Structure formats: C-alpha cells, structure tokens
Amino acid sequence: MVELSFGSLTFKVTQGDITKFPAEAIVNAANKYLEHGGGVAYAIAKAAIGNVREYIKISKEAMREQIGRDWIEHGEVVVTPALKMEQHGIKYVIHTVGPYCGGKWDENKKDKLRKAILGALRKAGELKAESIAFPAISAGIYGCPFEEVVKTFIEVVNEFSKEAKSLKEVYLVLYSKKDYERAKDIFGAEK
Ligand code: ADP
Q1: CA–CA separation, 129 vs 119, rounded Å?
Q2: Quick one: average pLDDT of 110-129?
Q3: Residue 24 predicted with pLDDT over 90
Q4: Among 42, 109, 124, 144, which is most exposed with the fewest C-beta within 10 angstroms?
Q5: What ligand 1 atom has the least distance to the C-alpha of 139?
C-alpha cells in the first residue's frame, strides 16, 4: 500500500474488491439514475443484497427522500445502507456520479469528477465516518483516462483535507493489478 499524508488525512492506494473493503463508507461510481447496471455499481448491489433490482429500488427511494428527484447531478450524493456488506465493517454506500469521458479529457470533465469526489468526502464527514473507500470513478465504462482520474483524486483529497474533521483515512481501491501498479507510480511521483 502506498500513501500520501495531507494534514490529519491519509490517502492510500490499494488493490482489491471494494465490496469487501473494511472502510466505514464505500463509494459507488453510479450513473445519475442509480441504475447499477454494470461495473462496480453492479458488484456493490450484488454484494449488498444479492438481488440487484432490489438494491436499485432501495437506491431510488433513498434518492427521492434525500434529493427529491429521480436523478443526481455531479456533486450530489445518495446514501444507502451496506446491508450484507456490514460483515466487512462497511456501514454506508455513498453513490456519486462522475463524468462520461469516452476517452476524452478536459477541464469540464475534471471539474465534474472533482465535484463527484468532493461530494462523497463531505457526505462521509457528515456521517461522521473515519474511513472512506473509492473505486476509480469514471475510469471504467465511462472511459476517462486512468492517470487523470488518479491525479484528480490526489488533488481533491488534498483540497478536502483542509476541511476534514472526523475523516482520517481515504482509500482508492483498484480492482486490477495493472491499475494498482499505475496508481502506485502516480502516488510515488507526488511524494
Ligand atoms: P464508471 O462507469 O464510473 O467508469 P465502472 O464501474 O465502469 O464505473 O468502473 C470504475 C472502476 O471500478 C473501474 O476501474 C473498474 O475496474 C473498477 N471496479 C469494478 N468492479 C470493482 C470492484 N468490485 N471493486 C473495486 N473496483 C471495481
């Protein structure tokens, strides 16, 4: 595990399956309707309750209650319970939506990703969580360049560290060994 320290906050990069990662809050790279159709969203829904449709229903109800709409904007987040993932010490799932890139990257996409990450960090703070784990939001089906995603994470976690209270540990949990190795190099270059 490679880590960066920003004040009282540590940002660590690790390899694994986020649905089993023992952080108080895990983040879902959701779509704006919380449909959980594929990628990490599907894996989280499956791990939480088995029946993915049921978790979509729970998520949409939570979105109605918490946001008052049937979709979320970049920066808006919805919280659902971890259900079966509680066996790993996970309490909350924070759903956030990153940008769609399709291989392209610009300031606008970066700003949307920044909002998505910051929204989840702030919500974890509100929930008084001490630890939060993120997947590589938008670096999968949404096709944003992995290196830019990781760099944006580092910048936003650094920015957030100035307002962090309860939160002590932020994790970037990468599914593939290849992504983990690439992220380690990017973290290493920040030191
Ligand atoms: P997006 O649509 O935001 O790109 P994806 O779910 O397609 O979201 O991918 C985001 C990242 O999550 C990808 O790097 C993918 O490899 C990773 N991923 C998929 N399943 C898991 C998992 N169980 N744990 C952690 N990361 C995962």
Answers
A1: 14
A2: 98
A3: yes
A4: 42
A5: 4
Ligand 1 centre distance from Cα of residue 135 (Å) = 6
Nearest residue CA, atom 22 of ligand 1? 17
For the entire predicted model, the pTM comes to: 0.98
Which of 25, 36, 8 lies closest to 173 in space, CA to CA? 25
Residue of 20, 40, 171, 178 to test ligand 1 pocket, by largest number of atoms within 8 Å of CB: 40
> How sure is the predictor about 191, in pLDDT bands with cuts at 50, 70 and 90?
confident
| Among 117, 175, 177, 178, residue to substitute to test ligand 1 (most atoms within 8 Å of Cβ) | 175
The pLDDT-based confidence of 110 (bands split at 50, 70, 90) is: very high
ipTM for the complex? Answer: 0.98
Coil, strand or helix at 79: strand
Using an 8 Å Cβ cutoff, are 135 and 18 in contact?
A: yes
Q: Which residues of 88-125 are buried (b: 16+ CB within 10 A; e: fewer)?
A: bebebbbbbbbbebeeebeeebbebbbbbbbbbbbbbb
pLDDT at position 10 is 98
Which residue has tokens 């894996």?
Answer: 43
* 140 CA → ligand 1 middle, Å: 5
